[in-house]
């Protein structure tokens, strides 16, 4: 058997690094054939030395969009891992699916911004979409071969982030440093902030809606601080199936590469129920974390609602990280932007990108520089 070619978009990031660990453990099964990074040429250079891909490039400079597209459609790539952060990943997801690739999707923003377009691209090009997000990987695994009609409800788990139990007024003024201290996962900065606001969980509900073709009412969220149960599927007969594991993104990455098969991998931490201890569950505090409901409501409006929410959130998070916006300010400016622009049309790629740009500009206007 020849090793399957993997293109990694965003190879220098948290997911990219985990994916290269997986690939390194299975040289007979996978090889890196294309690697991209945004701006860190030195870090990319190191990866190129180690993995000798046929193609590599920086997406941050002139012609950056072409770099992503070239990697996403590279002839040697059987699998395209989209591990870019933000709406910037959309076009590469579309191109890879159009080219018939298996897309291992970490870039959930692709589905949030252009869910319908992404599904159509897969149909047209014959590509397949396999989630990397741990919750969606869990659902895919728990679902097995069951038809969608046998599912009553999905329950996505959320760690609750670093402020799960903090008083509302402490959360509103939380520092960048405390926000980046995630209790269970080590990830890139943007998703770590999203995990603290619960915006990440709204992106994931939207992602699940498109991936599993279920109505909004059938997707719930529960807080599970230990991040061991990665999500639940409740079937129509009342049976509930969950997928468990020690939090490590290497497992869902590997599974996205091999689904529906499994590959032995002793490098992934094993779950010991006694050592791991209690598993607890609690309700989301919607009053303290308004972004979960806000993102879902924006998506339910249809059109460009989800794209506007996503773009506003991306810009708000970058201002928060730069110290120009308080933690509570993130949901304030995103809420204001969604109220203003959430009903923009979003049938076509161009309409979605226009709405994305207008939302970004609107947030810029709200944040004092
Ligand atoms: P990261 O910030 O660690 O890495 C992002 C990568 O993308 C880097 O290689 C960077 O160079 C590149 N990049 C940044 N901006 C870009 C742009 N505008 N265009 C092209 N490339 C760009 O992020 P991450 O934590 O690895 O997350 C990547 C994606 O995976 C995000 O969509 C995130 O939501 C998703 N995800 C991450 C985790 C995790 O555990 N880190 C879990 C689930 C889903
Ligand atoms: Mg997740």
Major beta sheet, specifics?
A: 6 strands, parallel
Binned strand content: 5-15%
Question: What's the count of strands?
Answer: 10
Helical amount: 40-55%
Reading off the top of the CATH hierarchy, the class of the largest domain is best stated as Mainly Alpha
Low-confidence stretches: none
Q: What is the overall number of helices?
A: 16
Strand order of the largest sheet: 3-2-1-4-5-6
Bound ligands, named by name, code or SMILES? nicotinamide-adenine-dinucleotide, magnesium ion
* First-residue to last-residue Cα separation: 56 Å
Large-scale geometry = globular
The radius of gyration computed from the alpha-carbon positions, rounded to a whole number of angstroms, is 20 Å
Walk me through what this model shows.
This protein is an alpha/beta fold and 369 residues long. It has two domains: 4-131, 3-Layer(aba) Sandwich (Rossmann fold); 146-233 and 282-366, Orthogonal Bundle (Rna Polymerase Sigma Factor, Chain: A). Helix content is 47%, strand content 15%. It has 16 helices and ten strands. The strands form two sheets. A six-stranded parallel beta sheet has the order 3-2-1-4-5-6, sandwiched between helices. Bound molecules: nicotinamide-adenine-dinucleotide (NAD) and magnesium ion (MG). Nicotinamide-adenine-dinucleotide (NAD) binds next to helix 1.
Identify the notable features of this structure and list them briefly.
single chain; 369 residues; alpha/beta; Rossmann fold; Rna Polymerase Sigma Factor, Chain: A; 2 domains; six-stranded parallel beta sheet; four-stranded mixed beta sheet; 16 helices; 10 strands; binds nicotinamide-adenine-dinucleotide; binds magnesium ion
């Amino acid at each position: 058997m020849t090793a399957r070619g993997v293109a990694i978009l965003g190879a220098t990031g948290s997911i990219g690094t985990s994916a290269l660990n997986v690939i390194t453990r299975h040289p007979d099964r996978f090889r890196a054939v294309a690697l991209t990074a945004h701006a860190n040429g030195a870090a990319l250079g190191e990866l190129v030395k180690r993995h000798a891909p046929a193609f590599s490039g920086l997406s941050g400079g002139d012609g950056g969009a072409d770099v992503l597209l070239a990697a996403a459609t590279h002839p040697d790539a059987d699998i395209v891992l989209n591990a870019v952060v933000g709406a910037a990943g959309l076009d590469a997801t579309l191109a890879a699916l159009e080219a018939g690739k298996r897309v291992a999707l970490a870039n959930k923003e692709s589905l949030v911004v252009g869910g319908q377009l992404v599904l159509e691209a897969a149909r047209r090009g014959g590509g397949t979409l396999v989630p990397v997000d741990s919750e969606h990987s869990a659902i895919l695994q728990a679902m097995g071969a069951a038809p969608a009609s046998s599912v009553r409800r999905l329950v996505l788990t959320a760690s609750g982030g670093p402020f799960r139990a903090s008083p509302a007024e402490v959360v509103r003024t939380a520092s960048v440093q405390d926000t980046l201290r995630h209790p269970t996962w080590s990830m890139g900065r943007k998703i770590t902030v999203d995990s603290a606001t619960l915006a990440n969980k709204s992106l994931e509900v939207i992602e699940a809606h498109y991936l599993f073709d279920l109505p909004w009412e059938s997707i719930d969220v529960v807080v599970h601080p230990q991040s061991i149960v990665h999500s639940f599927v409740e079937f129509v007969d009342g049976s509930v199936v969950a997928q468990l594991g020690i939090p490590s993104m290497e497992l869902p990455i590997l599974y996205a590469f091999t689904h529906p098969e499994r590959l032995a991998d002793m490098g992934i931490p094993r779950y010991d129920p006694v050592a791991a201890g209690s598993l607890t569950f609690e309700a989301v505090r919607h009053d303290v974390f308004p972004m979960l409901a806000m993102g879902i409501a924006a998506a339910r409006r249809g059109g460009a609602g989800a794209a506007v929410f996503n773009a506003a959130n991306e810009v708000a998070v970058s201002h928060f990280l730069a110290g120009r916006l308080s933690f509570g300010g993130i949901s304030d400016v995103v809420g204001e932007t969604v109220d203003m622009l959430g009903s923009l049309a979003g049938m076509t790629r161009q309409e979605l990108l226009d709405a994305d740009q207008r939302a970004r500009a609107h947030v810029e206007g709200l944040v004092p520089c």
